Structures are given as structure tokens and as C-alpha cells.
Amino acid sequence: MAELNETPKGGRIHIAFFGLRNAGKSTLVNALTGQEVAIVNAKPGTTTDPVSKAMEILPLGPCLLTDTAGLDDDEGELGALRVRKTLAVLATTDVAVWVAADGDAAAKEKFLAACAARQVAVLEYRRGEPVEKLKDAIAALKLADEPRPLVADLVAKGDFVICVCPIDSAAPKGRLILPQQQVIRELLDAGATAVVCRETELAATLARVPDVAFVITDSQAFGAVAKVVPPAIPLTSFSIVFARAKGDLAVFCSGAAALASLKDGDTVLISEGCTHRRQQCADIGTVKLPRWLKEHTGKDLRFAWTSGGDFPEDLSPYAAVVHCGACMLTRRMMQERIARCVRAGVPVMNYGITIAACHGITAVPGTCWVRR
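Request: output the structure for the sequence above.
Response:
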């Protein structure tokens, strides 16, 4: 159960180390963490894949440190692949540390330009400098993309919020799913009272709880919950508040509106930021969403799936992208994926907005609430 008390990867500041081969990146990561996280060897190219380690750097908070392969790897196709994987790390990096070495001026200049284009904070370190000095510099940084609240700014101290958490065959045994955990914790931190129930007990809960500020539900229960919650009480979902914090609600709502334009044979990409064993009878990504989308559009759609860190560079095969709430991804990661879709002209929406649309529920423009 230890992992339940740890900050998820999506809630950590991502710090990655870049430079030429043998510049001392792995040695630096080991020194910062105080552990043998990365293999260190005098032979250039020892690090072949990104290696990550979670740690706390106060007062910055929970961080994820990632060691990468050298950007000057020229050993054929394999070397080119390692460089591509290193540059892919940059797309999800909040703080980049350039580990300086002799003869790296050209590579450094190109790298700094890439960081500037993505608004990535950059620090420089050279082997032999005090590691504590680098820690202090990291801790003092003000990031361009600060974390955003999920629900804390929607409640006042003393408010009652009902959280509807269905317990079905796809629910994790003995615990709540991560988005539910994070929202409930943020409500408690804000001084609000979180009242948790299943959708089957919602009507009775509403009758007993006075002055409910709003109801937040698991998206897959939208259809049932919307019928029970009075119109005067604001309603949203865990997925939608995550979209508000990490995604772009306006882009997602526009994407959901584009569902009406799908045609027979179109392929919809369903992407999740986590990796889990899917339940064949009840999985939301592979079973429920495809069914709801086919019913809603009346079209014979095709589907493709990605999970974890995988997200295609080429989006041309897809007519639309439906993304999860991104509880396991950082805001920077999610913004990068949205930007790819926008550049490709492919409508993108998240689970909550999509499921709501499939049940005849629309988002209120400029808010995280839905109209039903």
C-alpha cells in the first residue's frame, strides 16, 4: 500500500539531465538522489534509455529526476534512436539541466533553442561543481507552468461536496482510483467536507446533506447521476476537473462537437496516460467508450489505443482523439499532446467531456460544469 501515499508522477516536477556522452549526467543524478540510480562508466554511451527516480527537493516539492542518453550519439540507427528518445523527454520536462562538457557549444546552442521554444527552465552544471549549489538553484526556480488546482478554487471552507464513486468490476480492489483520491484530498485541504457515496445511494445522500455546493461524479456514471441531481446543484466529473487543471476545456468541447462529423470507417484514437490490465467486460477505454461513441454517432467506427507514455507523432490516421483525464501526466505532458492534435487538425476531447456528450449532457462554456 506504500504507493498510495506517494505523489504520482503526474503531480511531480520533471527535472531531466541533458548533454553529450560522458559529460557526467549519470554521476550527477546519483549524487543528487544519494542512490545508484544510473549506471556510471567511463565508456561513452553507457546510458541508453531514460532512467527516472522520484525524490523531494524542498521547497520546490516532489520531483522526478530523469537521466538521458548523450545527444551526440552517432552509432548508427541505434544511436539515432537513443537521441530521439532523449529529445522526447524534453517535451515533458519542466526543468532541464545541461551538464556541460568541452566541445559542446554547438549541441548546447541547439538544445537551448529547443528549450526556449517550449518554455522549459534551463540550468547549467559542470562536473566538479558543488551538487548542493545545483539543488539550491533548482529549489529557487519559478516555473513558467505552475500546477493548477483541481477543485480548491471552487469551494469555500465549510462547503459540502458530494463525490460519486461507482464501485464496479473495473474499480481497484480495496481503494479509490487516483483522480478520486486527489480530488477528495484537495477538498479536505480547502476546509470543505467531502461526502462520498455510490451512484445507487446518491438520491438518499442528497436528501440528507444540506446545502450541497456541487456534485462531482465518475464520468461513466454521468447518465444515472444527471437524472438524480437537481438542476440547481452544479454537476461535473472527476475527468472534467482534471481537464480544467491539465488540459483545455474549450478545445475539448470543440472536439466533442466534432463527433457529429464522424463517418463510417473513421478511426478514433483512445489514449490513456496510465498502464493497467484492462477488464474485458467493463473497461472504460476499450469497452464502454467505443460502445457509447457508436451509439451516439450512429456510425460504424474503428478504434485504436495507446497508454502510458506512448502517443503518436503522426495523427493523420485518426479522425478524432479521446484522451483520459491525465491524472498520471503532468500539465506540460497533456498540453504537448493537445498541441499535436491541434497542429494536425484532429479534434481532441477527454473522457469526461466525451461521455457527457454521449449522454446528451453538454459543458457550460467557460466553466467545468455541465448542463443537463
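The first strand starts at residue 13 and ends at 19.
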